[in-house]
Amino acid sequence: MLNLGILISGRGSNMENILKSIKSKKIPINPAIVISNKVDAPGLKIAEKLGIKTEIIESRGFEGSREAYDKKIIGSLTKYGVTPKNGLVCLAGFMRIISPQFVKKYKNRIINIHPALLPSFPGLNAQKQALEYGVKYSGCTVHFVDSEMDTGPVILQSVVKIKENDTEESLSKRILKEEHKIYPEVVNLFARKKIKVSGRRTIIG
Ligand code: GAR
């Protein structure tokens, strides 16, 4: 069975939802390790409660290069069997850019969720960006990670209609609901080897 590593920085609701879905929906993947770059990420406690191993690899105060930091992450993933041959890495609110070396090593095995319909509104505060731009629809995107920010091949997207009285909070809440639907679905598709990448496109099924 494939081994799953989840990388978080904070709340961890996507992580929690993926871990619970693995159990309830019988997704054929072993949740091997949750790694946080922040010592106080609330998601760590949730993972522990669910009986999943956790590691903290603090990025704050880390003096080395991005590549050196990512080597530590790769070391931890490898320790738990999340390898380029037999692993899947899910970024779930992991607020760091991944080095090209990490991406290359785990080619098409690192997945991210972003709270907008990429390529619109990449980067931070995507929901706020969408409201400020005035778009009528936003949503979320699960995509493979490549060496730039939020640019890799799209796997699944879900659309959310923006209401006239939406605030960043209300929109984020509705988008998060969709995130919780499509992220476990992608993990399931990946675990069952149903996702193929052809150039920028993914083929599902
Ligand atoms: C989620 O909304 C996720 O899409 C977003 O951070 C939140 C993490 O929440 N990620 C990004 O903005 C990445 N650019 P969570 O910790 O509760 O899963």
Automatic annotation (TrEMBL):
Stored InterPro entries: Formyl_transf_N, Formyl_transf_N_sf, GART
GO molecular function, one term: phosphoribosylglycinamide formyltransferase activity
One Pfam family this sequence matches: Formyl_trans_N
Pathway info: Purine metabolism; IMP biosynthesis via de novo pathway; N(2)-formyl-N(1)-(5-phospho-D-ribosyl)glycinamide from N(1)-(5-phospho-D-ribosyl)glycinamide (10-formyl THF route): step 1/1
GO biological process, one term: 'de novo' IMP biosynthetic process
Start and end residues of each Formyl transferase N-terminal domain: 6-187
Top class in the EC scheme: transferase
Keyword Transferase: yes
Alphabetized Gene3D superfamilies for the sequence: Formyl transferase, N-terminal domain (3.40.50.170)
The entry's keywords: Purine biosynthesis, Transferase
EC number: 2.1.2.2
GO CC terms of this entry: cytoplasm
NCBIfam families cross-referenced by the UniProt entry: PurN
Family annotation (HAMAP family): PurN (MF_01930)
This protein's name: phosphoribosylglycinamide formyltransferase 1
Species of origin: Nitrosopumilus zosterae
Gene: purN
